[in-house]
Amino acid sequence: MAADPDATPHPIAQRTDDSRATESGTVLRLPVWVLATAAAGVIAAALIALALLGGNSLPERNGPPVEELAVERTVLSPGAIELTVRNTGPDPVQIAQVFVNDAYVDVAAGTDPINRLDATTVQLDYPWQDGQPYLVSLLTSSGVVIEHEIPAAVATPDPADAVGLMALLGTYVGIIPIALGMMVLPLLRRVGPTAVRVLLALTIGLLAFLAIDASIEAIELSGRSGGAFGGPALVVLGAGLAFLALTAVDRILRSRTKRAGSEAETGLRLAVMIAIGIGLHNLGEGLAIGSAYAVGELALGAFLVIGFALHNTTEGIAIVAPLAKHRPTLVQLIGLGLLAGGPAILGAMLGAAVDNSELSAFLLGVGVGAIAQVIVQIAPAMRTRSGQVLNPATIGGIAAGVLIMYVTGLLVTA
User: Fold this and answer.
1) Is the dihedral of CA 316, 318, 319, 324 positive or negative?
2) How many other C-beta atoms lie within 10 A of the C-beta of residue 328?
3) pLDDT tens digits for range 147-201
4) Which domains does the chain carry?
5) CA torsion sign, 148 to 151 to 153 to 156?
6) Which of 78, 259, 392, 395 has the most C-beta neighbours closer than 10 Å?
7) What pTM was estimated for this model as a whole?
8) Which residues contact 216 (CB under 8 A, 6 or more apart)?
9) Cα–Cα dist 217/273, whole Å
């Protein structure tokens, strides 16, 4: 009897055929980590070979060596000037002689060759006078002159002695003004939905001005660093990392808010994001204050405190704006205030102890990225029932926020 070609094969027979096919055509599947390691090894070997063979096959550069130095820090002590210099060029640099106001001075240290991106400390024996300007000229072994200006000489304070002062100053310009601004929360609870949207628009205006102002300052600081670690690219790097990090934080808070299912939790989430963004900005602001104090450019006094108080009080209003229709606990309000104002203390201490333009530019960039992410989070909350975000009221609120920050910023002397 002939077998029916359309008949379904027996299950046992089908499994036997499949096993034979597998045995005859076995495919070895390696783990992903093995493939990734092998690929990385091949790429690394190729790059090493290219560096060894390719460099020898190319001709040497024509012309004299390219010598560039950037002075990152100046420390003035009685009878001495100490400069921290970094090689920002492609070739090693050796300091042969140093002149201060065209007068040759003895160099106690720092005359060894400096390789690319390395830093050294140049110690000069010089009886400088308080308040006088000085021009330091570094003469390299190839005859290149690199100048560094000290506008007004002043003794560099001891970082250990400045800790208490910077903590007090950070409290004056950070925590207290923000706490004063947050005290308007009971007043905000009596306003209607339109007023809340205007307040959120005002917050966006405040934050936008902070972002623009910090960007300008960060780019200026990065230009002073000599560009050893990227210059303005440091600002972009800090802003990008902060934006991505706060986006991740927002996603975590948003998921918790969805599980809670409370409108009050949504308002608290926005307040937390605003406090984090302002806190990162105040970290960079405190760093600038500490750095200015370290080089004697900070005018301490009542005018400084009042100027920062008026300027930063508006930041406290921005934090509680999303909480206008909610009743947060006292602990939550204290936490928001410390989250926004506390970094000013840390920044001031760090600035007085380190005084590094590149670090300052990077942290200011972090503040810019954080504020940009917070603006993205606040914008949808201004939407009306018809779906409109920008209308005459919200546009006026944004403009008012920018103007308030501009006017109060004129009172800040640091």
Assistant:
1) positive
2) 17
3) 888 888 888 777 676 778 888 888 888 888 888 888 888 887 777 777 778 887 8
4) 69-150 (2.60.40.10), 159-409 (no CATH)
5) negative
6) 395
7) 0.66
8) none
9) 23
